[in-house]
Amino acid sequence: MSEQRKVYQEILLEINRIIKEDGLRPGDKLPSERELSERLQAGRSSVREALRALELLGLITTRRGEGTFIQHYRHNTLIDLIGAYVLKDFKTRKDLVEMRKILEIDAVRLACRRGSEKYFAEMERIIHMAEQTIRDGKIPTEEDYLFHRMICRSSRNSVLHRIWVPLVEYSKSVREQSLSRDGRAEEALEEHRLILEAMRAGNEEEAVDYMARHLENSIL
């Protein structure tokens, strides 16, 4: 490994450390290139190269005259590009749906054991949001995403949640097509209610059964 490559990779690690130390979150502004260079004791050209790599990955964005900001991972353009490519292949689409089933059914099991009222109340709020979206004549794609994400979060398994997020981003177009089917949005909402009720009651097998049926019904 070249010395330049070592410096470049070290800067990426150090930028990540600064983000954690400063408590920065998506939407927050990064320190300036000059400040990063001073804090890292590194040349500005090396810092600039590391920032450019992060921007190409969609992890940060630069706004002229304002500075550099951390992007939310859900807005990562790399995920959009990969998703558009892999979903052209039907076999890949089926594999994604299958993998989602594996993750979400286990997430439901864990949520029944570890979930708290804080998570369940948030799921209920999301269901009400979806109801309003449907009344407005729109497809509740975002609310569907948020409901399933909250189940994964309530599993209290951070690795499961991190794997689930890009997986569902890949299949965004599939979810939109599914929810656009006549009457499907209303059906999916009722299925969400049943899943939530079973999890709240701690009825693990019932919750798993409802989730399995829900995901099966969501396949085009």
If you had to describe this structure to a student in words, what would you say it looks like?
With 220 residues, this protein is mostly helical. The chain has eleven helices and two strands. A two-stranded antiparallel ribbon has the order 1-2. Helix 7 packs antiparallel against helix 8. The longest helix is centred in the middle third of the chain and has 25 residues, at 90-114. 22% of the residues are buried. The model is unreliable at 1-5 (pLDDT under 50).
Distance between the termini: 48 Å
What number of structural domains do the residues give?
Answer: 2
The helix content is over 70%
Instruction: Work out the radius of gyration.
Output: 21 Å
Strand order of the largest sheet: 1-2
Low-confidence stretches: 1-5
Strand-pairing-aware structural class: mainly alpha
CATH architecture of the largest domain: Up-down Bundle
Query: With helices defined by DSSP (H or I, 4 residues minimum), what is the helix count?
Result: 11
Task: Note the main sheet.
Answer: 2 strands, antiparallel
In CATH, what is the homologous superfamily of the largest domain? GntR ligand-binding domain-like
Order of helices and strands: HHHEEHHHHHHHH
Q: How would you state the average pLDDT, rounded?
A: 83
Number of strands: 2
CATH class of the largest domain: Mainly Alpha
CATH topology of the largest domain: Four Helix Bundle (Hemerythrin (Met), subunit A)
Percent of residues in beta strands?
under 5%
Short description:
With 220 residues, the protein is mostly helical.
